[in-house]
Amino acid sequence: MTVKERLQSKIKIDPKTGCWNWTASTTSGGYGQLYFEGRPHKAHRISYMLFKGPLTPGLEIDHLCRNKLCCNPDHLEEVSHAENIARGIFPTGDKHHQGKKTHCINGHEFTEDNTYWYPQAHGMSRGCKECRRQSNREYYHRRKN
């Protein structure tokens, strides 16, 4: 059986959404998983490679449908890590996801140059570099005096 046949045998198409929902093994993060070339790979990445072509180094696959189990190549797009995060791929439990905010609490814009990422239990979170610089300056001046 080819990889394409194996992939297709493990999906169920949702007629309402068009998602190709993965029905087999999943990763701890909730993504479909398929063995390929002797090791597990995320099923949506295999689907992208089979139907759209090779993956671009440095880019990630974003689920446009926001469904981690979806393998429909029409629902997948290559994007940068920053873009993937900004689109809100890491759920926080908060229905107003932080990833959709364009500015920090102090009004600084979340740009690639002004954003840093750090791990959290739910995935990754972002912070404002300008706010961190200001906080570090204030701390330095308090310690100096």
The CATH class label of the largest domain is Alpha Beta
Q: What is the domain total for the residues? A: 2
Average pLDDT rating: 84
Helix/strand-derived class? Answer: alpha+beta
Overall 3D shape: elongated
Run of helices and strands: HEEEEHEEHEEH
Strand order of the largest sheet: 1-2
Q: What would CATH call the architecture of the largest domain? A: Alpha-Beta Complex
Structural Rg: 19 Å
Helix content: 25-40%
Question: What is the overall number of helices?
Answer: 4
Low-pLDDT segments, ≥5 res: 89-97
What is the fold named in CATH at topology level of the largest domain?
Answer: Homing Intron 3 (I-Ppo) Encoded Endonuclease, Chain A
Find the count of extended strands (DSSP E, 2+ residues). 8
Beta-strand content: 15-25%
Textual characterization of the structure:
There is one protein chain. With 145 residues, this protein is an alpha+beta fold. The chain folds into two domains: 1-79, Homing Intron 3 (I-Ppo) Encoded Endonuclease, Chain A, CATH 3.90.75; 95-145, no CATH class. The chain contains four helices and eight strands. The chain has helices at residues 3-9, 43-51, 81-86, 129-144; strands at 11-13, 20-22, 33-36, 39-42, 60-63, 76-79, 115-120, 123-128. Strands 1-2 form a two-stranded antiparallel ribbon. Strand 1 (11-13) and strand 2 form a beta hairpin. The longest helix is centred in the last third of the chain and has 16 residues, at 129-144. The protein is elongated and about 70 Å long. The chain starts with a helix and ends with a helix. The model is unreliable at 89-97 (pLDDT under 50).
